[in-house]
Amino acid sequence: MKSYGQYCGLARAAELVGERWSLVILRDLLVGPKRFNELRQGIPGIPSNLLTSRLRDFEDASVVERVLDGRNVVYRLSEYGHGLEPIVVGLGRWGARQMDVPRENEVPTDNSLAAALLTARTDEKVQAFSVEVTAGPATAHADVSATAVSVATGPFPDADLRLGGSSLRRLLADGDIDAAISSGAVTAKGPATLLKEFTRAFSTPLDEVAHNLP
């Protein structure tokens, strides 16, 4: 881990989380504890030795803990590490303003989709419901309470609402569920009232000015 040589909290934080892949690893651990192979498989492109190095740095800084879950060793955020949640969520929301269609070779993962739901939760008070979301190869689900959300990866057979399709990102930006469904860009299964609750519970604006820059 490289030092900036400055006695500064921001510099110290940047030393720890500013390295390549670090924030993506933390994003996936915010979704939930994971075994090493689950982390590696969930982050396409990260070399195993680099993942090992980043996890070791996080352990040394007491951000991540390595614990036994039955016979398996899993990595999870420590209490100190969980303090990063509002920061990671805020960065994700800030970065999402520049996302519309994926770039070439960009794909969603189960963890990135779950984190997107965490990031997109608004302050709106809504009716409690559960939702399963599919985007390309990725599936995640969320339990939405009146003012909060908990997320996880994979399908949720008992979800109250199921959403999928190619334009979920645009739906989070404009909230026009009727147009998205009528165009076929989004598929939905569940009560119409919950579709409206979804668009109130989840929203991430697009930064049209930045998006249109050359």
UniProtKB/TrEMBL annotation:
KW DNA-binding (keyword) present: yes
Show the InterPro entries listed in the entry. ArsR-like_HTH, HTH_HxlR, WH-like_DNA-bd_sf, WH_DNA-bd_sf
Q: Which GO terms describe its molecular function?
A: DNA binding
Q: Which Gene3D superfamilies match?
A: Winged helix-like DNA-binding domain superfamily/Winged helix DNA-binding domain
This protein's superkingdom? Bacteria
Enumerate the UniProt keywords alphabetically: DNA-binding, Transcription, Transcription regulation
The keyword Hydrolase belongs to this UniProt entry's keyword annotation: no
> HTH hxlR-type domain location, by residue?
8-103
The name this protein carries in UniProt is: Transcriptional regulator
What organism is listed for this UniProt entry? Brevibacterium aurantiacum
